[in-house]
Specification:
By secondary structure, this protein is of the alpha/beta class. The chain is built from 15 helices and 17 strands.
Length: 450
Amino acid sequence: MTGSKTAQRPLRVGLAGLGTVGGGTHAVLTRNASEIRRRAGRAVELAGLADLDQAKANSMAQAVVAAGQPAPKVYTDALAMAADPNIDVVVELIGGYGFAKSLVQAALANCKHVVTANKALLAVHGNELFTQAQGQGVSIGFEAAVAGGIPIIKALREGLTANRIEWVAGIINGTTNFILSEMRDKGLSFADVLAQAQRLGYAEADPTFDIEGVDAAHKITLLSAMAFGMPVKFEKAHIEGITKLQSQDIRYAEQLGYRIKLLGITKRRANGVELRVHPTLIPEKRLIANVEGAMNAVLVKGDAVGHTLYYGKGAGSEPTASAVVADLVDLARGLEAPAADRVPHLAFQPDQLSDLAVLPIAEIESGYYLRLRVADQPGVLADITRILADSGISIDAFIQREPAEGEDQTDVILLSHVCLERQMRLAISHIEQLATVLAPATVLRVETFA
């Protein structure tokens, strides 16, 4: 005999921040209410809206009613929403470290679950906030904080739990990937493409966090913590952006069969963990090297599964809202579940996190690309290769350009096999002392993902 399941009360959502992602979350929850209820086993209702723009909040509330759903309450103060007993979960889409942190802390203090897209907040203050949530028996969902609509958090926390993760590498900032794609396709300078990206809305008026690699570092910090079961350690990450990248290096990389991407990389090593963001040469035959425009991709290597690749839109209104709503559905499915039965924030049980050391950049292992401006005379390449050999570094490939007519200098481009960064730095210091080397070396790291 088959019985019907008793209807469960709705999950009541308070949405704080009605900008790009907040508007998308409102749209997805309203448009797909029936589908979401079928998946979650209960309704997921917008019970509260909070934004500095009260007219926008009121308009969105009216749209919810027009869709045949209960009217959400509009709050003039998001902290009041966080204290309202009629709200089960606060969705923080305000951004930044300031008021957003106060709001999340207030929600947790009132025993409310939190869902956020705020990677900066979690990368810097995540350890504190996860501990507070654990103490209150509630959860923080942050699928939307990394790679927009790509379910990489779910993959690391659940889908790949059988694996010992060896490394994670990702194109996790769409702005910089768009810029690098345009520089490669059109041969334009960084400054020209950045201006174009700002006109098209891919880059902010102040793009510093994107182009200097900080945004990608926030994200790879969270992925690293979940991959290896350690606290978030953003302050230990090595961060380089793309502002100094030259279009000629993109061309030389192409000639060698590589493409340059800004990657977030984290690797497990015997003596600690690598955690770094920088422009990287990748063999063009790798799938991740062919991710173009504003798209994101994350490559994960597990000992059992091997390589897995996650690709999609890393930003935007509804792609990011897709991830926000996925967290809400997870909460709706297990709303009455004991805290100990929920998926841990950082994939490992809180008492099983290991305080692994993050290695300084001098101790990482990588291949290297070197561009050297040298005098066009015999013996130059022999001197350079001798110094590299004396430093224990072997050469994988090189290009020696013919000098332009009438010039007495040219470029030499070298690719090395994998070595310790400190070995390479020492070798470069000796190379730059050669009288025939006319300018500081341009150095980029190389990852083959073999």
